[in-house]
Design goal:
There is one protein chain. The protein is 64% helix and 0% strand. The protein is mainly α. Helix 33 (640-648) packs across helix 34 and helix 53 (1020-1034) packs across helix 55.
């Protein structure tokens, strides 16, 4: 075959002698030349038509080899032949073009060959499929590299030929390949332009994608800040804030010319999050730090910056930095302990940063921070790891200063002032253990050292900090450490000769102990509790020890020994030892003293409690009540964002989450699932397995008024799994029959045999009530029967009793009979101690009552709570004499005992044995989670509003002791928004009752509104002030709060201000549309009152607030967006839509622009939104936008709105992005048919290629093809690579 090709080539190159002799005088007939070319092409076609690619490539090289050395006229003939062969498809276009561009003799020195080859490539490249065009472009760039940097006039033809080819490839109207891929290639492979002559072309091409980058960028993203929630941040919450752990840059999709601020390090964001208490889970989530020992230098750098900032703040007069240093020490310990950061690196970086800075006031705090880590880790690490601290000492404590004086050991600050000396003592001890020569104490520290040595003899714990100083200095030296630690332990544990101490160690003392000392103390406490439990001595724990233990558990830096040890070691050991008194105390401590416990531990404990409830020993009335009360608090206390992530881990073993017998706990779990699903917004289908397990364990139904508040998934489940309702008339007959049997039996054994055996009808409480109603007396044998029934089985009796009560009251003649019934119930609770008021009311509130019976049930609850004085008296006394700030008290236990002496609690079957002695709980505190449920049930029935107001008026003061009052109110107003939106007085009453003791946290105008009794519709100024509070708090400008976040329901000031503000907004008289509009108007109308450079912070605050409100509020944004989009038709502005929608440009130019402002607000709201909120966007695009979008500018506005949220939408569900993409194509088709001309086809098509390559691939190939075929040819041409549309079909349709 090569011979045949050679023959044809020889024929082309052959020149007649006469032709050669008279070449300057001959004129060739054009027709004859064309005929010759046709013959040569025909011959080559015959030769090559059956050849494979290897043969064709060899033939091409043969032709090119000849062409590179022949005359210009013959070269032109050869190129003409090649062009025809390519167009006849004898030679595959891609093979031919790639062979030419990669030919090694294609060099700029051979001018004619270079120019003709590039000209041929330009004429034939349209026939190459797009992947081949990419390779040719690469070849083009490689050839450009060979051109000299300095181009003389002689090289202009070669340069021009190469440029012409590159321009053809980059021509957006020709569309030889997806421009998105080419732009990606140019930035990735040729970020350094191959030659300066191509630079302008490359820059302009890449710059044309700025429009796409703008469409997929969040406005003001670099200045947005999240509110850091409780520990255990769910993935969906962290995803919008993820940063690259090496560069600290946003993880942007696609290589696009994003604005420089989006491509820069986001140190401000990471530092902001690090500054927030309880942020370590979010920091790890943001940086993807999942594996221990995953070193992160960027995190290290920010920790150093924060320490330096703290030192600078310490220099300022009147600024309290104690809380900041406590938080920083906790952060440093955690990140260094898990080896995300290196201690020597941090110390050396601090040394370098502090050189030349005269920061003396913060140096003691810095040394205290370092001491925290050194004391706890120096025994496990070599001395060399800690030697950099000496350099820091030399810098901060120069020799030319006078010796450090001994501080006043009566002040807690002395532990900070002597921290450097404690460090020296630890380092000296470590040096001795490693065999180094003895170190001498520096003269500056000698006074401190001598003072500590003189303290070594035994001391008793007093009001000073001497023992804390000794513990901190000698915690690694057992010879000196054991005695001060023993004194510390004896202070809270007591000795055999004295009564158990009641005053715990104060938080000031605990804060003055190093981490190592606190670990030793908590270890001593746990060891003591375990020994006591295993000895079965029955000796109660000292109140001071239990209270101190609970306070130690707030320190996150000792979590492994703290809450982790409590859940996984202490509780199981106490349980195995059958030390029920101790177990009772520990569960009480968990219920009333624990704060910010990671949800994983809480769910784990819930699982333990369900197992515990099944053991025979837990069948005692008090212990059973304690277990159920703790479980109820755990269930109702789960945060809405915590429910799905935490419970999903147990889906394979749902039975551990579900009570086998307690219908009330399972109903509480259903209500928590409903609330969490409603607040966070997912569809709720994830929890159907849990619901099925609940339905199997404790089948139950829900009343219609409760069901209608459920999210759809739960509503459907309970509608499809209906449970037959019991006939109340038959229940009454069964009770009367049992009562007749009781009356007819005289033999005690017969009575016990009938009523006290397992399997007997659960009607004994009904029987006792009837007995009391008719005889005002209970037979002593009844208590024996109650004991045989047991606390666990008595729950079933209580349910029947509640149903019987409702039936009795529903058919009561009223008047004296009702009073008699209530008095009888009261006697059962307070006189005979048969049932506790909290269990009875909980059961009544959770029974399935419909219609008038539901109202009757509410009426009974009101009467039981308020008609007798017993409960009201207890509430009033408890509220009057006690404070919820238990961490600041030293005499809590004394007040607790006073209350129990005045109002002793007894349980009937255990009266003789004495039962358990509560350390923290009482009937008032036990009632709080029940009160929460009662309020919710009353809210569901509009007819009982007055009853609810009366109950809140008398008992609302109890909310002073609620552990999460703002969160509870937020959940209530959020979940029942549809029920409450037209009941402003009730909302105000709820806020006044629940936040009665926290009114100062609300804005001043709202506090005035609470005191008034009229409707208040706030003006714009109110919303501006409210948003300003959020802005100032998030940016750290608000005055430092005295709140100790370790004991607050919220982890930090940002979360606190967000949820208190949301409560306030939801409780306003104005409805959701007015409130949401007011928030949007803060920016849209009030922008003149906002400092120019702070606008993004205000937009961020509006986004935080709106995204945390119910859907009825943020759907107002969707409506406003529809109105704004509608206003873009017709387009009357003399700038492009991209400039109109460029928030930065319009705002910095001080040009008010509703469109860019609405875009920024929408981005802020959606950036902060939860999964349910984000999932509504595709539905909004599909259902609402087609009626509005008609023009190209409107479509571009839609692209700007939703473009940045493709990554989050992709994570939601596998179907979301395809559905949204289909909707966008439909909108484009609608615009295409409505408009005669489209000016921005390239950016629009770039967006669709971005969607294809980044998110959906070829998932919608058929659907897209059907839509693209209906579009105008120019759009078909651009989108043909997505729709897989042959170019010939486009040409025929055009």
């Amino acid at each position: 075959m090569s011979e045949g090709v050679s023959g044809v080539l020889n024929e082309i190159l052959r020149v007649e002698g006469i032709e050669e002799a008279f070449s300057c005088f001959l004129i060739h007939r054009q027709g004859a030349e064309l005929d010759k070319i046709s013959v040569w092409v025909q011959e080559l076609q015959t030769i090559l038509q059956e050849a494979n690619n290897d043969v064709l490539e060899a033939a091409l090289r043969q032709v090119l080899s000849v062409g590179s050395t022949c005359s210009y006229s013959r070269l032109q003939l050869l190129m003409e032949v090649l062009e025809r062969l390519i167009k006849l498809k004898v030679l595959p276009a891609r093979l031919a073009c790639e062979s030419i561009i990669t030919y090694d003799k294609l060099q700029y020195q051979n001018q004619d060959f270079w120019v003709e080859c590039f000209s041929l490539l330009r004429r034939t490249i349209d026939l190459v499929e797009y992947k081949g065009v990419r390779e040719i472009m690469k070849g083009c760039c490689e050839k450009a590299k060979s051109l000299p940097r300095h181009l003389n006039i002689g090289l202009q033809p070669q340069t021009k030929a190469l440029l012409n080819l590159a321009e053809r490839i980059m021509d957006r109207d020709v569309c030889l390949l997806p421009g998105y891929l080419l732009a990606n290639e140019l930035q990735k492979a040729y970020s350094d332009c191959p030659h300066w002559r191509l630079a302008s072309l490359f820059y302009d091409y890449v710059d044309s994608f700025r429009a796409l980058a703008q469409m997929v960028s969040i406005v003001g993203q670099t200045e947005m800040r999240p509110v850091v929630e409780h520990s255990g941040c769910p993935e969906h919450f962290v995803n919008p804030w993820k940063l690259d752990p090496v560069t600290l840059k946003f993880t942007l999709t696609g290589i696009l010319p994003y604005p420089s601020e989006l491509l820069s390090k986001q140190t401000g964001l990471l530092r902001y999050v690090l500054e927030q208490p309880y942020s370590r889970d979010m920091v790890c989530g943001m940086l993807g730090l999942k594996q221990h020992k995953q070193h992160c230098a960027a995190l290290e750098e920010q920790l150093v910056d924060l320490v330096v900032l703290a030192m600078e703040k310490s220099e300022q007069e009147g600024v309290d930095t104690q809380g900041l240093w406590l938080h920083l020490s906790s952060q440093v310990i955690y990140f260094v302990l898990f080896q995300f950061s290196s201690f020597p690196n941090i110390v050396l970086a601090l040394h370098d940063r502090l050189i030349g800075k005269d920061l003396k006031k913060g140096r003691d705090q810095l040394m205290w921070l370092l001491l925290q880590f050194i004391s706890g880790s120096i025994q496990r690490n070599p001395l060399s790891n800690f030697l950099p601290v000496l350099r820091l000492y030399e810098l901060l404590f120069p020799d030319d200063e006078p010796p450090l004086p001994v501080p006043d050991f009566n002040q807690s600050q002395c532990t900070r002032q002597m921290a450097i000396t404690c460090i020296w003592i630890h380092l000296t001890k470590k040096a001795q253990s490693e065999g180094h020569p003895a170190w001498s104490i520096p003269p500056r520290l000698r006074a401190h050292h001598e003072f500590l040595q003189h303290l070594v003899p035994p001391l008793a714990m007093g009001q000073d900090y001497r023992i804390a100083l000794l513990c901190n200095a000698y915690s690694t030296n057992q010879d000196y450490f054991s005695k001060p630690m023993a004194a510390l332990v004896e202070t809270i544990q007591g000795s055999k000769s004295t009564s158990p101490p009641t005053a715990p160690l104060s938080m000031a003392v605990l804060d003055s102990l190093t981490v190592h000392s606190k670990m030793s103390l908590i270890h001593s406490i746990v060891t003591h509790v375990i020994k006591l439990a295993q000895s079965k001595s029955g000796v109660p724990l000292a109140p001071a020890l239990v209270e101190t233990y609970s306070r130690l558990l707030v320190y996150t830096e000792i979590e492994s020994l703290g809450i982790k040890g409590f859940i996984s070691q202490l509780l199981p050991t106490v349980y195995k030892s059958h030390a029920w008194n101790t177990l009772y105390t520990l569960l009480e401590m968990f219920s009333y003293r624990m704060h910010h416990i990671h949800p994983h531990y809480r769910v784990q404990l819930l699982s333990h409690l369900h197992s515990l409830a099944a053991v025979p020993q837990a069948n005692q009335t008090q212990l059973h009540l304690c277990v159920e009360s703790t479980a109820l608090r755990l269930i109702t206390g789960l945060g809405s964002a915590e429910v799905q992530p935490e419970l999903s881990r147990f889906l394979s073993e749902q039975k551990t989450l579900v009570s086998a017998e307690s219908e009330e706990l399972n109903r509480a779990l259903v209500l928590t699932l409903a609330r969490a699903t409603h607040v966070t917004g997912p569809d709720g289908n994830w929890c159907t397995e849990i619901l099925s397990t609940i339905a199997q364990s404790t089948p139950h139904a829900w009343a219609p008024h409760t069901l209608e508040c459920f999210p759809k998934a739960l509503f459907d489940f309970f509608s499809q799994n209906a449970v037959a309702r019991e006939n109340k008339q038959q229940l009454k007959k069964a009770v009367e029959e049992e009562y007749r049997k009781w009356a007819s039996m005289n033999n005690e054994n017969d009575i016990l045999a009938h009523f006290g055996v397992p399997g007997a009808p659960p009607l004994f409480l009904c029987l006792l009530w009837k007995m009391l109603l008719e005889t005002d007396h209970i037979s002593p044998i009844a208590y024996k029967i109650l004991e045989r029934i047991g606390a666990r089985a008595l729950s079933a009796h209580l349910r029947k009793f509640c149903d019987s009560l409702v039936f009795e009251f529903s058919n009561s003649p009223g008047g004296q009979h009702v009073n008699k019934c209530v008095d009888t119930i009261n006697d059962m609770i307070w006189k005979y101690n048969i049932v506790t008021i909290d269990r009875l009311v909980l059961c009544l509130a959770l029974r399935t009552q419909e219609g008038s019976e539901a109202q009757v049930c509410s009426f009974i609850i009101q009467l039981v709570l308020l008609k007798p004085t017993e409960f009201r008296n207890r509430v009033q006394d408890f509220v009057k004499d006690n404070s919820p700030d238990h961490w600041n008290q030293v005499n809590w236990h004394e007040r607790h005992l006073d209350f129990h002496r005045k109002f002793p609690e007894k349980s009937a079957p255990e009266e003789q044995t004495g039962g358990y002695h509560p350390y923290f709980g009482n009937v008032c505190l036990r009632f709080l989670p029940v009160f929460d449920i009662v309020v919710h049930r009353f809210l569901e029935i509009q007819q009982v509003t007055k009853s609810l107001e009366i109950i809140l008026e008398h008992l609302g003061c109890l909310y002073k002791f609620h552990d999460r009052p703002v969160t509870y109110l937020y959940n209530t107003l959020h979940y029942y928004e549809a029920k409450l939106h037209d009941r402003p007085p009730l909302k105000r009453r709820l806020v006044g009752a629940v936040l009665g003791s926290l009114k100062d946290t609300l804005s001043e105008p709202y506090q005035v509104y609470l005191a008034r009794d009229d409707v208040w519709i706030p003006e714009l100024d109110y919303y501006i002030q409210l948003v300003k509070r959020v802005v100032d708090t998030v940016s750290g400008k608000s005055p430092a709060s005295l709140t100790d976040w370790r004991f607050n329901e919220f982890p930090n000031a940002g979360a606190h201000i967000l949820y208190t503000s949301c409560v306030e907004l939801m409780a306003l008289s104005a409805g959701p549309p007015a409130v949401a509009t007011g928030l949007l108007d803060v920016v849209l109308r009030g922008y003149t009152a906002i400092p120019l450079k702070e606008i993004n912070q205000w937009i961020n605050a509006v986004g935080l607030l709106l995204s945390a409100l119910p859907s009825s509020y943020w759907t107002v944004l969707h409506d406003c967006l529809l109105e704004t989009i509608a206003e873009m038709e017709p387009y009357v502005w003399d700038c492009s839509p991209f400039r109109l929608l460029d928030f930065k440009e319009t705002h910095n130019a001080m040009l008010y622009n509703k469109f860019s402002y609405m875009l920024a607000l929408a981005h802020s709201v959606w950036h902060h939104a939860g999964p349910g909120h984000i999932a509504s966007i595709p539905r909004w695009v599909r259902d609402r936008l087609p009626s509005v979008v008609r023009s190209e500018a409107q479509f571009l506005m839609v692209c700007h709105l939703i473009g940045p949220f493709f990554p989050r939408l992709k994570l939601l569900s596998i179907n979301v992005m395809p559905e949204l993409t289909h909707s966008l194509y439909e909108l484009l088709a609608q615009v295409d048919h409505a408009q005669s001309a489209l000016n921005y086809m390239d950016p629009i098509c770039d967006l669709f290629y971005h969607i294809k390559y980044m998110f959906i691939g070829d998932g919608l190939k058929n659907e897209i093809e059907a839509i693209v075929r209906k579009l105008r040819p120019a759009l078909q041409l651009r989108l043909r690579f997505i729709a897989h549309l042959p170019i010939e079909e486009i040409n025929t349709t055009s």
